[in-house]
Design goal:
alpha/beta, about 45% helix, seven-stranded mixed sheet, single chain, MutS, DNA mismatch repair protein, Chain A, domain 3, MutS, DNA mismatch repair protein, domain I, Nucleotidyltransferase, domain 5, 29 helices
Length: about 850
Amino acid sequence: MAKPAIKETPLMKQYNAIKAKHPGALLLFRVGDFYETFGEDAIRASKILDIVLTKRANGSASHIELAGFPHHSLDTYLPKLIRAGNRVAICDQLEDPKEVKGIVKRGVTELVTPGLSFNDNVLDKRHNNYLASVQFGGDRMGIAFLDLSTGEFMAAEGDASYLAKLLQSFSPSEVIYSKSHKSSAPDLLKNEYTTFHCEDWVFQYDYAYERLVQHFGTANLKGFGIENLPQGIVAAGAILYYLEETEHKEVKHIAAISRIAEEKYVWLDKFTIRNLELIHAQQEGGVPLIQILDHTHTPMGSRMMKKWLVLPLKEKEPIEERQKIVSFFHKEPELREEIISQLKHIGDLERLISKVAVGRINPREMNQLRRALKYTLPIKSLLKGQKNPALKKLADQINPCDFLLEKIERELMEDAPMLTHQGGVIKDGVDPDLDEYRGLANTGKDYLLQIQHREVQKTGISSLKVAFNKVFGYYLEVSNTHKDKVPTEWIRKQTLVNAERYITEELKIYEEKILHAEERLIALEQKYFNLLVQDAADYVTSIQQNARVLGTMDTLLSFAHVAATNNYCQPKIADTDSLEIKDGRHPVIEKQLPIGEEYVPNDIFLDNSSQQIIIITGPNMAGKSALLRQTALIVLMAQMGSFVPASYARLGIIDKVFTRVGASDNLSKGESTFMVEMTETASILNNLSDRSLVLMDEIGRGTSTYDGISIAWSIVEYLHNQPKCRAKTLFATHYHELNQLAEDFPKVKNFNVSVKEMGNKVIFMRKLEKGGSEHSFGIHVAQMAGMPNPVVLRAADIMKHLEKDKNMNKQRDNMKDIPKNNYQLSLFELDPKFKQAQEMLEKIDINTISPVEALIKLNEIKKTLE
């Protein structure tokens, strides 16, 4: 006999219909004062949010899991769900339950995803929250980035390595791509991002182009500089589709799209961004460069700082324009502090105006917008009053928005609450009706107190009180001890255990007046606040421009502050192929040194004709890696427009920076240290240019000594002999054999990081000197690291034996003749002669014996061993 079909409740039928439209999203379903989740969603939500999981009836003979939280806690719980990588559909009640018979109409009002959010608790003020869209193709692929919270929209095209670099630089919170590329996407995305795939038709050129021109209201995309980026256009169009799909219909603040121009910025591959620790430290507790440079005072400045760091400029004019402003502020500390004192009050102007555009700003945030506009005015005046043309140019770009500022100040209460229905939003004098209702609401409550006092005196019921509830409205409550004093005209409404509740005709009249006054007051306040938001929406473009100018100012002020604090110099950007740094320092390491210890600076000179490749030898721990990294960081800081940690720097524009430093096994992918090393090195050699800076640290150490030397040797030869790509190279190695290259190739020069031997100890001088080093001092380093003495002594023995001959083939033969280690004999039985010598040694007090006596004793011990 077939089982009867399980009949769903009307509520669950409605839930399942809405859930079916958003199968990949976790559905928050509004039921009364709660957001509920059901079934698999409930199980997932209960674990992420640590809330109780229960079951509820779903029609006859059926139960379903249930987990929920109060609707006013949405801002607390939503960020947790998003950070866990969920797409969350928020389903609200679309009509007032009081006015509906039967099931309330519901619908998804917003689909929040990791890459699309306005929620302040989801967003990090100091970082952009990008949604990325990738259009997979052949040699050229497309990519677009959108930060919905700021309206920033960008597109680019390039090969897979360029897209990988952009993804790493911009760190999107979510990536979308077409369904047909589900199998190829992991090659690029490496499972590092939250992803979502759309239907293939979304990623079609004609559809995407039409969406973009329709959105921007233009005939074509030439004005945005992306007309000739077909793959980039497809990626950008897919983002607009995704916005509509996720119920983000108000997108007026996305007013433009820009091209990430590959030719304008220094090429930093993903390995270099990681190796140089620009944004993130590789080790836990490490300090990235941005932590040293970022002393901004606004979220816009902090976000811009990060963008500048991963996209350094490679055009002389814009670099020098930034430098001029930094130089000016560097010399004017008082002006710097005055502008900073205003910037501190501005807050996240960029995201505030985006909330205006989409109608999500609340009264408290509108006051923050007012404050931001107010503190922008003195900044404009200060910049305009300077003789520096670059600052005057910035001042002219700031729109004072006088009308909007005056309107907010005139209409909005300064202590307005977060929600409009809480009242106290609009000032007196805006609307006579609003003033009347407010007076009635306030004095009406006072009148109720007067009724209470009057009735207490008239009846003698001292405990009488006027109260309110949703069932009866206003009522008089009398305790049972006084109920015999109640006047006959009072109407009894409720009997409690210890009291009775009554109403009077007078109370009902005032109740109606007061309640209607409050409802009308809130309705009017909401009306005027909405009008204020509409007026502010006319200023979206102007205020976005202000936010960009203030972010630029903030970043340049931070550069000036860091330069003044850390004694940086202004680098000279020259039309030359050389790189010259005097007394260069590592900007991060110098800030981490113990108090009293100073960083040892070094000079570097590289050019394309006389000193193209520097081979740096020297012991481990001497500072070779730091020297390599500091050179790259100084170049990048200079081309960001910052001052640099040196006494002098002059450089020709570098267009690509490549690094291969440190060991990074990728064992989970089945790749050894050596495989990773060779992959990264191959990427460098295949992408060289004439203005590249290449940093290679210990190439070949992941394989055998002879393989390693051979590979390192051939790489140096290749770099030297490239006629079109004479990349400036710093090559740190522990293979001293590579010093021979300087004799064979004119543009290769040997340098070493010096050390000083004091007896059996090594002191690292950390100074770069001409000439190669013959020793690695690895055994000394092992000793300093606390290696047991027998191990250190044995290593020294072996090395001494191997160093008898410099010829590699003979060294290999020497390996066979290494003297055997006989320490293990002492575990069994010592030779009687050795035992006698040991006893004689133990009897000697070396603290009191004279030199002559020591010689006599030594002679005696020698005789016992003969």
